[in-house]
UniProtKB/TrEMBL annotation:
Species this chain originates from: Nocardioides marmoribigeumensis
Organism placement in taxonomy: Bacteria, Bacillati, Actinomycetota, Actinomycetes, Propionibacteriales
Family annotation (Pfam families): adh_short (PF00106)
CDD domains xrefs: SDR_c
Family: Belongs to the short-chain dehydrogenases/reductases (SDR) family.
Protein name: NADP-dependent 3-hydroxy acid dehydrogenase YdfG
Keywords: Membrane, Oxidoreductase, Transmembrane, Transmembrane helix
């Protein structure tokens, strides 16, 4: 008889980190993970908003902690990692969600603005990887979830820096999936479609109108429905609660079209 493969026991306590947790997908994910029993550390630049989410989690009986985080600042990432580990213990789950998006035609966008998006959306994720993944590898368990975008499959005009960052992010994640095979650390991609969040809410009227018009022209806005942030949070929770021996590599979540005639 062949002996069953050895499995590293799944710990009962799995502290999780969520970046970009002050609103939208990040805040919804922190709430969903806490409801599923994960102690959660929320990171974002707007700590006051994170503290509001923390309060709601604690009122519901969950465990949560907030600390300022700017993924574009190496020192901020280092301090965040130290604070969250000190508060919650070894981090078992990292949900990398922080991102910025500035609309504009590629040849008209300032290079510094373009670079800033790449630094937050791609290089910032690598800073998190360096801060948390080595410990996961040492402990032979962990989950890294990168929140991508449907632009990684279908580029959208007037957001080329964001598109480039998400293409690069998925490339890095796929490489890590191969590199970390056999370490017990799972790297997963969650790819949201159009989602109702604060991203884009600060665009000026003409810019927003131009972007949406161009999306329609190129067949990238087939219907007006948007996902709720909680739908992405549910997908992320499903990914990280998969039992050992199961690796959910890529999940794409898109809004269902309205029923015909409704």
């Amino acid at each position: 008889m062949v002996a069953p493969p050895h499995r590293v026991p799944h710990p009962d306590r799995r502290p999780a980190v969520v970046t970009g947790a002050s609103s939208g997908i990040g805040a919804a994910t922190a709430v969903a993970l806490a409801a599923a029993g994960f102690p959660v550390a929320l990171g974002a630049r707007r700590t006051d908003r994170c503290e509001e989410v923390v309060a709601s989690i604690r009122e519901a009986g969950g465990e949560a902690f907030a600390h300022r985080l700017d993924v574009a600042d190496p020192l901020s990432v280092e301090e965040f990692a130290e604070a969250t580990t000190s508060e919650l213990g070894d981090i078992e789950v990292v949900v990398s969600n922080a991102a910025v998006l500035v609309p504009g035609r590629t040849d008209q966008v300032e290079t510094e603005t373009f670079q800033r998006e790449l630094d937050v959306n791609l290089v910032g994720v690598h800073r998190l990887v360096r801060a948390f993944v080595p410990g996961m590898v040492e402990r032979l368990r962990g989950d890294l979830v990168v929140v991508s975008s449907d632009v990684a499959n279908r580029a959208r005009p007037w957001m080329s820096a964001y598109t480039a960052s998400k293409w690069g992010l998925e490339g890095m994640a796929h490489a890590m999936q191969m590199e970390l095979e056999g370490t017990g650390v799972r790297v997963s991609i969650v790819r949201p479609g159009p989602t109702r969040s604060e991203m884009g809410s600060d665009w000026e009227g003409p810019a927003a109108e131009t972007v949406i018009t161009k999306w329609i022209e190129h067949g990238l806005a087939r219907h007006p429905l948007l996902l709720r942030a909680s739908a992405i949070a549910d997908a992320i929770t499903t990914v990280v609660t998969a039992p050992r021996g199961v690796h959910v590599n890529v999940v794409e979540v898109t809004p269902e079209a309205p029923l015909e005639g409704a």
